[in-house]
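Figure 2 data, in text form.
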Amino acid sequence: MKVAFFLEADSKNPGGYNQTLSTVTFINEKNKHNEDIIYVANSENLKNKLTEKGINSLLYKRTFFDKLINYYLGLSFLFKGLIKFNLQHSFTKFLKNNDIDLVFFLSPSNLSLFCGKVNFVLNVWDLDHKKDSPFPEHRENFIFEKREFFLNNVLSKAFKVIVPHNQNKEDLIKFYNCNKDKILVQTLIPYLPKISKKELKFTSKQEEELIKNLPNNKKIILYPASFWAHKNHKYILDSAMLLKQNNINDFYFVMCGADRGVYDFINRSIKDNNISDKVCTLPLISNFCLKSLYEKCFAVIMPTDTGPTNLPLYEAMFFKKPIFYSKNISDDVKIKEIIIPIDVKDPNSFVAELKDLNKENILKKVEIGNDYYKKFCNEDVALNLYINIISEFKAILSRWKK
């Protein structure tokens, strides 16, 4: 049986990109089961990245026709037309030509709609668009409609669905009536702890200078998140202004990530409110620069409106940093023991926490978080999940193929 792991990721979206690389890295390192596994990248950049890691891979590129289908995905008449005239997508042909029996999509790729007779396993990271989201990134360019079309048409066809938290599983059942027995939970495993030797360097002099010039006399609070509206970077600015009003000068905020529409707005607001001595923004940075920031910072903050989990939560656990986290996006009792909860609608709640920091309480939360990381962000557990899926499907496949 031949199994393919499909990587569709863009380095300009570091969260998904790093999560995908993390999964492939540990599977390639730890697979001792002699499974016939191949890796398929959707870009030359990603293929080259795998080559750097000593991982051989195939390249699949969408054709112009594929891109056209992707652009208009959600128009039911187009999809029905493909079915009516039995038109084959190039990805269907790719799987057939490479004799693939099972595909693992390491991200929620809409190519899973075009697997033909090949079975597949789909990773679904979040359902934030479904939760009455007012944010432009969930509404513009028919994103909501496209996601709904995709999920409504793909979930019942998937052999298994992998989600990062039990809340995601409950959401899939609630919103899409997905079969609970096919949904498996595997906690996100950050890539930063395992960056390769080739990545242990700054990618520019600018990065090196940024790290060097960070204030040494202040406690740095890090917010590593792309500049989407739902990531709520303005909360940091509002908090910084409150600190300024209260003449509290012990903290310095660093926000870094790709621009997804609000980067200029945030920078203008910093200038207009004269708080550049309390907060700075960095554009998309290298993994090594981000790792350096984690090592240098006092704490991590995540005032996002979406969840229940996000990669910086687990990265903070690994680097043994306290994390100020949105209090209402996770019902997980274990997570609540780890985070310092903040009200994302009221920056005064965060400032109050900063005024009343308790060293013993912070150390306790950090240790609980690190223990949680070791138990749930566990590569051996994740590998067993993938191997068990393969074994289960292999038994089914034996009914019609040796």
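Caption note: The longest helix spans residues 379-397.
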